[in-house]
Design goal:
Oligomer: single chain
CATH superfamily: Nucleoside diphosphate kinase-like domain
Order of helices and strands: EHHEHHEHHEH
Number of helices: 7
Mean pLDDT: 95
Helix content: 25-40%
CATH class: Alpha Beta
Bound molecules: adenosine-5'-diphosphate, magnesium ion
Shape: globular
Distance between the termini: 14 Å
Radius of gyration: 14 Å
Structural class: alpha+beta
Length: about 140
């Protein structure tokens, strides 16, 4: 059965451009409850750890430096079928391919600076939530 928790990050481009409030409201209006939120300027080590699964990809180095380019906003979100629903809400990785009305279509700059992260499985949602919110009992699974 699909879980009710997903993990997101409002990425540095969206925070720097002043879109964080609008994106957060978009998420809340779509029915997600915010279970945890913080503002953090990631170190290189944190970004490398978060995206370790992509370390062999050609864009990894740029991705890490972009994720450390300014503060970002990690979020733990709750809704039925949270992971799949949230991926639909944010749209395709490349904003040029994202559906109309999705968060990436509305706010992303490029395939790299694409405004938001969304977990791709229940397992990764919990792992990612714990990475930023180790102190939170409810995301311990
Ligand atoms: P998603 O965030 O949609 O799950 P991926 O997990 O494939 O996408 O990639 C993680 C992040 O790496 C993307 O959100 C984006 O910021 C960056 N990225 C992905 N593909 C590319 C690419 N071809 N060039 C540059 N950056 C990319
Ligand atoms: Mg991904």
């Amino acid at each position: 059965m699909a879980g009710n928790i997903t993990f997101s990050i409002i990425k540095p481009d969206a925070v720097a451009n002043g879109h964080a409030g609008k994106i957060l409201d978009h998420i809340i209006q779509a029915g997600y409850k915010v279970r945890a939120l913080r503002l953090i300027h990631m170190t290189q080590g944190m970004a490398e750890g978060f995206y370790a699964v992509h370390r062999e990809r050609p864009f990894f180095k740029d991705l890490v430096s972009y994720m450390c380019s300014g503060p970002c906003m990690p979020l733990v979100l709750e809704k039925a079928d949270a992971v799949a629903g949230f991926r639909t809400l944010i749209g395709a990785t490349d904003p040029a391919k994202a559906d109309e009305g999705t968060i990436r279509k509305l706010y992303a700059q490029s395939i790299e600076a694409n405004a938001v992260h969304g977990s791709d499985s229940d397992e990764n949602a919990l792992r990612e939530a714990r990475y930023f919110f180790a102190e939170i009992e409810e995301v311990r699974g």
